[in-house]
Amino acid sequence: MFLICSSLLGCFARKESNEILKTGTWRATLEIQGQMVPFILECRKDDGDGYDFYLQNAGERLLLDEVTITNDSVDIGLHIFDANIKARIHGDTLKGLFIKNFAADYEIPFRAVYGQSYRFEKATEQKDTPDFGGKYRVEFVHEGDTTEAIALFQQFGDSVTGTFLTKTGDYRFLEGNVSNGLLNLSTFDGNYIYLFKAAKDPDGKLKGEFYSGKAWYETWVAVKDENASLPDAEALTYLKEGYDRIDFTFPDVSGKMVSLTDEKYKGKVVIIQLLGTWCPNCMDETIFLVDWYRRNKERDVEIIGLAYERKADFAYASERVKKMVKRMGVGYDIVIAGSENKEEASKTLPMLNKVIAFPTTIFVGKDGKVKKIHTGFSGPGTGMYYDQFIQRFDETVNELLMSNLN
């Protein structure tokens, strides 16, 4: 007999099962706030006797290769995140929970159906499909507070992909459709769950709703605007008056203390990355930096990642960082800097006005002085904004490498 305990399914004893996990496409949903958030999972046999899943959102396929089958149950580790999907296999269905391990009682109902490849339901009757494609100026509203954003939507027939950009980052790869006149977009990256809905007014204005996780809800309005812009990402985070350098001493994952004044970094251009292993935008920037550093590490340049984790506990944080380093092949230094709470993070770097966003990227010249600070990150889901970030990044580093120490 094998004992299974679940807050969703109860606790009971059962015999071993002959259920087999089917390879192919599964349409999955997570239930939040009375809404069903769909995404696509693709199951494949791995190189041995096990299985891999691919988490699919628009053009992204995230490999999930920590898959454990026990009798009729499957446990899927979710990439670098401290989260799992645990479900029972019953023929063409999976039913269970999405669990955030670092949070108390964070369990969300999960269900998947084999052989279904659509994301949102198609329209029952839709003669003229409204066109939601384009660039929009957006305002999100939450309890009276507003946040500016830019929306980028691409529409082909009734299929839509896109993202939202804010001053602190982007909402990554959104995918959905237009059904019965309404826009539906969703994404699930292994940690965050997003659902966007909107209708179009006769004048072209979009009015929508945004659901995130167990409780976060906002309304939003959008107006098409090719000139929509956000605050300058290089002006939001800055050194306080009287400072021209950044200084810190933090332990690496083995406990060895690391400082920017160490011999390894003297006379070099140093890129400091404020990140968290829980942060999908940080994951995107890390993917970029890993490849960039591999190609440029012989050019008197170093990168130091300052990790701010969900728990202010060194053992927990170091294990999360070790997993990220191994999975993503990180070749640069990462230290444990503190908690992801932005007020607490700001205390660890008192020379900054404040920590506004993860990630934040600080460029230090060969003379040890801070030359530029970039808040947030526009990832690959943002298209041209991602290309512009890369171009600006390369220009900045090249200029610093060419400058003299004095």
The computed structural class is mainly beta
Overall CATH architecture of the largest domain: 3-Layer(aba) Sandwich
Task: Bin the helical content.
Answer: 10-25%
Q: Enumerate the spans where pLDDT stays under 50 for 5 or more consecutive residues.
A: 1-15
Major sheet: arrangement of strands: 6-5-4-3-11-10-9-8-7
- If you consult CATH, what is the topology of the largest domain? Glutaredoxin
Topology readout:
Blueprint lengths: L1 E5 L3 E5 L9 E9 L2 E11 L5 E7 L2 E5 L1 E5 L2 E5 L5 E8 L2 E8 L6 E8 L19 E9 L2 E12 L2 E8 L2 E2 L3 E6 L2 E7 L4 E8 L5 E7 L3 E9 L24 E3 L5 E3 L9 E7 L4 H17 L4 E9 L4 H15 L4 E7 L2 H7 L11 E5 L5 E6 L8 H19 L4
Summarize the structure in words.
The structure is a single chain. This protein has helices spanning 280-296, 314-328, 342-348, 384-402; strands at 2-6, 10-14, 24-32, 35-45, 51-57, 60-64, 66-70, 73-77, 83-90, 93-100, 107-114, 134-142, 145-156, 159-166, 169-170, 174-179, 182-188, 193-200, 206-212, 216-224, 249-251, 257-259, 269-275, 301-309, 333-339, 360-364, 370-375. The model is unreliable at 1-15 (pLDDT under 50). The protein has three domains: 2-114, Beta Barrel (Lipocalin), CATH 2.40.128.120; 134-224, Lipocalin, CATH 2.40.128; 249-402, 3-Layer(aba) Sandwich (Glutaredoxin), CATH 3.40.30. The radius of gyration is 23 Å and the shape is globular. The strands form five sheets. The protein has a nine-stranded antiparallel beta sheet, with no helix packed on it. It has an eight-stranded antiparallel barrel with strand order 12-13-14-16-17-18-19-20. The protein is 14% helix and 45% strand.
